[in-house]
Automatic annotation (TrEMBL):
GO terms for molecular function: phosphatidylinositol bisphosphate binding. It holds the Pfam family CRAL_TRIO. Residues 53-149 form the CRAL-TRIO domain. One of its GO terms (cellular component) is membrane. CDD domains: SEC14. This is CRAL-TRIO domain-containing protein.
Length: 152
């Protein structure tokens, strides 16, 4: 999101705009895009830590089956060690029941310090609003900063 938190952290929101993904959809390509974005942020942005919000609203069972635990672990290693990313928190919102086991698996593969920063909110954003001011969040997450589409 364009505005920093009071602690000067950058809020990053990830999610699918539509559940209708083609057969050629690649989660690995999404991870590559994430790392390219990280490169740009290193050169162009000034902030203290990252806050990640992962919106699982449009995630389907077929997409979950494409997730490789080893790839997620490599992404964590690359992001945290390679780019020296300082992560304040990770928030998972709009989690469908089919994703619960996947999140549990991913959490078990994460480093303990990082897994303790993982927060699951479902569709109730009350706790999210306690950690991130509403004025910074998009309307889709109960915020006041306009829609996600308007901000990007």
């Amino acid at each position: 999101m364009p505005e920093l938190t009071p602690d000067f952290d950058r809020v990053n929101i990830f999610g699918l705009l539509t559940p209708n993904l083609g057969d050629d959809f690649s989660l690995l390509d999404c991870f590559k895009t994430l790392l390219c974005t990280k490169e740009v942020k290193m050169c162009e942005d000034y902030y203290v830590k990252d806050i990640y919000i992962i919106d699982l609203k449009n995630v389907t069972l077929s997409l979950i089956s494409k997730v490789s635990l080893s790839t997620v672990k490599k992404l964590e290693t690359c992001t945290v060690k390679g780019y020296n990313t300082r992560i304040r928190s990770i928030h998972i919102v709009n989690m469908p029941p089919v994703a619960e086991k996947l999140i549990t698996l991913i959490k078990s593969a994460m480093k303990k310090k990082l897994s303790q920063r993982l927060n699951i909110h479902g569709t109730d954003f009350t706790e999210l609003h306690k950690q991130i001011p509403k004025r910074i969040l998009p309307v889709e997450l109960g915020g006041e900063a306009g829609t996600i589409e308007d901000n990007f």
